[in-house]
Structures are given as C-alpha cells and as structure tokens.
Amino acid sequence: MAGIRISYGAAMSLPLDSDLLRTFLAVADTGNLTRAADAVRRTQSAVSMQIKKLEDLLGFPLFERHSRGVVLTAEGRRLVDNARRIVALLDDTAAALRQPALDGSVRIGISEEYINSTLPRALGAFAASHPNVEVTVQQGHSMSNLKSLDAGEIDIAVVFEPGGRTRNEVLMVDPTVWAVSDQHGTHERRPVPIATYTYYEGGWCDDLALRSLKKRGIDSRVAYVSRTSSGLIAAVVSGLAIAALSRSAIPHGCRELTEDDGFGIIDMSNVVLRTRPDHRSPTVDAMADAIRRAFRGAD
Question: Does the keyword field hold Acetylation (predicted)?
C-alpha cells in the first residue's frame, strides 16, 4: 500500500495510506458498508474499522450513519475529490511503470470542453511513461475532428454523439443542458435569448436544443453566435443569453436550467473515443488508454 501525506495548512500534516482512501471511496460511492465491502473484497467489519481509522487520523467524521446506509458529511465531501485524484495518480503511476517506454508520434483531436480538465490528466500520465513520444493536440468541434480522423490527419478523436446506443466506445455520458447565469434571470425573458454555435453540417446539438424549446412552447431568438463553447459560456456568464452546454462545462456562477425552471435535459449526450482501426500502433493504443483512465477519474 502506498503512503500518502495530506497537508491541511502549515500546522497539520497527515500520513495516510491509499488502502484507507480506496475503502473510503468505495463507501462514498455505494452509500452502504455491505456493498462497499463487496467492492473492496473485505468483510463489512474490516471496512468499518478502516473508516474509523481514517476518521481518527483526520479528527472528524466522514459519514453520517442512517438506517438505510451512510451519507458523506461536509468534511467527507471535501475529501472525496482529493482522494479520487490521489488514487487515480497512484493507479496511473503503477500502470506507467509496467509499460515499456514508447516512441513515435500520436495526434489527438478533442472538443474544447475537455481541453482544460480531462486532457491534462491524460497527457501528464502519458508523458511520464513515454517522454520520447511526440504528442500533437487539435482542439475543435466534433464535426471537424471526425473529418480530420477520416482524412488521416489525427489518430484519436474524442467527440460528442447524441445519446443512446452507439457502436463507438463511450467514455462518459455528459448531458447537454440549458445553462443560465446565477445573477441574471435571462431564462425568464420572452422570447428567451439563446447563444448558439455557428451552424455546422451535421451539428445535431443546436437542432436538438431548438427542438427542446419548441416542444415546451418557449419562444426564442438567437442573441449570440459563436464557433466555440467558450464563446457560449461568455454569453451565459454575462447574462446576454442562455446556452446549451455540456453539464460538466457549466462554469462557476452559472447553473443548469431544470424541469423546475420549465426547461430540462436536452440530450443524454455521449462522449466517445474514435480511432482509425487500420492505423493502430502501440503508441496510439497507449494514449487511448491514458485518455480512458483520465475520463474514469473525471466521473
């Protein structure tokens, strides 16, 4: 088991082992000690003892006990994200040490939504294992990345697809929803101002978004047009418009418009990984694995 030292300010440094954190995450994810015990292949009493040991080390309770299971305390919720990052880093490091160093090149096309979140984790883990590989990243919308993949200009594409069954590998489901600024009642205006992408052939997201408004009888007008999701986010943050965004991309100071607001989910969109089957290589496969692990850590 790996020893981890977590620091809470200058006066408090706690040595923890990864085994405790894995058990903590299992309990947090299942909300039940019995199911968590099955997940980590331990007895329920052993899981209870590990949680008690972790709580004693930290000096505060991580769970509230109820008749039907357990729920995280405020302190427990603070620990969850750090614990996931630590465990993911240890797993990536172990995987890296087992892999032979590769060389060559790999080219990735990815949507803007994951450029600053998931992709850095994948690139960091990959670079640690394969420092001699030349990596090129192309940021673009899904249609352009698919065209580049078909043309042989990139080796891996991480793109959006409409929700539902697919033949492609699904990395995660990231629902497309309407987003609005917390500080503005933009969604209450009529016609409601919306921000939309510059139209792309095959651009299903805007079509689904507009159909969702019509289905609910909400009049709308296009107030902002952008080629990038950052442009849509700017329109939302400023209160100029609402926009259809991936749930994971909603920025601080904004929120999802739900059924209670009269809107609801537009589509249970899939984020999928595409490669060219006729141009596989150990280097491309290794990068694809790094991307998969990064998305699992983001769930």
Answer: no
